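Example (one chain per record):
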Amino acid sequence: MTSVFKRNGKGSYIIQYYDHNGRRHEKSSRTTDKRTAERIAGKLESNAALRREGVIDARAESIGKRAQRPIAEHLHDWRESLQAKGCSPKRVKLAFGRASRIASECAFATLAQVDPAPVHRLVREMQGSEAAPRTINAHLQAFKQFIRWAVAERRLAANPLLSVGSVKVIGQTRERRPLSPDEFVQLIDASRGGPILKRMTGPDRAMLYLVAVGSGFRANELASLNPRSFDLTGDPPTITVQAAYSKRRRDDVQPIRQDLADALEPWLKGKSPEDPVFSMPSKLPPMLRADMRRAKASWIRGTNDRAERCDRHKSDFLAYIDGYGRVVDFHALRSTYITMLVKGGASVKEAQQLARHSDPKLTMNVYTKLSVHDLVSALDGLPAMGPTTAAPQSLRATGTYDSSPTKDPPQIPQQSARETVQSEATRRDAHHRSGHQGEKRKSFKIAEKRDATRHNAPPSVKATSGIRTLDLRFTKAPLYH
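Predicted structure:
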């Protein structure tokens, strides 16, 4: 039922009606003509009946109304949802800024205006401005994440960016290399005795590098550690990263070696339980580069030979960038941890769990770095390919190397039952050795036997069933006298 009336007898007509859910609503008709107000009221009543009967999809209509709201309101709601999920402030700021940039440069005023064509055009413009492919993909990932959230929250009916793919990345823009055990020892020694850098003392930097390589923690995870994160008396000793700072968004309890726990115990004494144990700077690569330069200089001074010093100066040992363009930044310490696990004999599953990766391909293909020497050492497990010492003896036993065979060689098998070796036949080589002049011809006893057998055979017997004559003089006309 609808009703049309004027409030206090003046102004525009007010329409009172019930929607498809039975809730009462009041709406101004914005007209002083009663007939027009009644027609509007009838339209509202009929729409409510159509929604009640399912002719009009009320849910789709609600989503359409939400999509007409300004996109800035949806972006702010998305940022609040990221904060409620426990994402770090840095992550929330980056994602919100990247998604807002795409919405602004594509001129999307509402969610309903989101279309793949302006996004493709923006990607081409960013490529023309020589933006890195990873930077473009990061912006696309943030905006597509925002659109997926809008679809899940029923603010959009469908995802309009399904056809928008990532930009192809050819090669790695930065390839990291792990430190060798000798390089890591030199780095720790140089850092421990070094001056204060970036508000961190030398012993603190040395312990930071030890914990990074001994646990595989990332930079933000190391910055979140406090004395309560360490359980050095457990079996095994562990370090725990809270879910708010872990990339997996759950508490990570990482086991460590006992020697690292023994080094951490005196270093943690006297530190406040609430304060972070590492006062890490915002930019870690300059600090690491300075310690690596100091470590390499100390390593070069470790020899008095001038030629050796020149070779050490040119080598890639403790070089921030080696001859292949690979760098050693702070995240390379995590690659060092995983590579040492694999070299130490850890299985793929063990390395994956200690690295806290969801996919073993990431562990083995990206973080594990093996050198040529590591690959050569793996070849030791193959069987020997060359001849063994027993081979010449076995060859000599068969008559090789001018030695007589120990056993008679096997006789060649006869081709058919018709070829029977006759004991009375005279060997041809013996006939040749005896000569022809002044000697009588050899006897033809075997030939006479064959002729007799052939002449006495019945007519039904085929010629092939008899004894084959090996001497052609008895089967064909003589070619010479």
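Caption: Residues 412-426, 430-440 have pLDDT under 50 and may be disordered.
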